[in-house]
Amino acid sequence: MQRIGIMGGTFDPVHNGHLLIAENACEQLSLDEVRFIPTGRSPHKQGKSITDATHRLHMVEIAIADNPAFISDDRELRSDTLSYSYITLENMQKEFPEDRLFFIMGGDSLRDFKTWYHPERICACAALVAAIRDDCDHAHLMRYANELKQLYQADIRLIKTPNLSVASSELRDRVAKGQTIRYQVPDGVRHYIMEHQLYQAEVPDQVFAKGQSNDE
Questions:
Q1: Which of 25, 87, 154, 208 is most buried, taking the most CB atoms under 10 A from its CB?
Q2: Higher pLDDT, 202 or 14
Q3: Three-state SS at 205
Q4: How much is the pTM?
Q5: If you write DSSP's letter for every residue of 44-89 in order, what string do you get?
C-alpha cells in the first residue's frame, strides 16, 4: 500500500511555500509521493483571470524536477468541467484502490472547509492534512479539526511547517511592479516567468526590463 499525498491549487505561480508544505508532509507522514494537481476550472476563481494551464503546469514541473517523490498530475487540466476536490479525490480513490490518500492544505483552510462542495465526500476519500505554522492559533485550529471530526468522521493530521509567508497573488503583484521574487520561488520557475513574460500585462516594457535585470 502506497501513501499518496495530494496537493491541489491554482499554482499561479507555484512557490517555495507549496514545496515546503509538501516536503514536510512527506517527512512527517511517511508519504511515498506527493502529487501536485493544478486546478483546471476552479469554482472559487470564476470571473478571475488565471494564467494559461500550460504555463502553470510547466512551472510545477520545473519546481519539482529535482524531487523524485513529487509528481505533477494534469488530470484537472484535461477536464472540461469545474474542478471540485471531491471529484478529483473520488477518481483517485478508484485509480488507487489499495492506497491511502492524504489531502494536503494550509492550516487556514480548515476554517473554511465546511463551505467546500461536498466536504463529507472529501473526508470519505482521504485524510485531511493541515500545515500549521508556529504563528498560527493552535487552539482555534484544534477546535476546527475537532468539529470536522464530529461532522464528517474526518481523519485529520496536523503537520508542523516553518513560518514562510509566500502567496501567489503577492508574487504576481511583485512581478508586475518589477520587484524581485528571488528566494520565494525556485530559480527555474523565476526564469520561466521572466522568459515568458508572465504577470507583465499591466506594466510598461521598460519597467519589466528593469525588474528582470534586478531579479537576475
A1: 25
A2: 14
A3: helix
A4: 0.88
A5: TSTTS----HHHHHHHHHHHHTT-TTEEE--TTTT-SSB--HHHHH
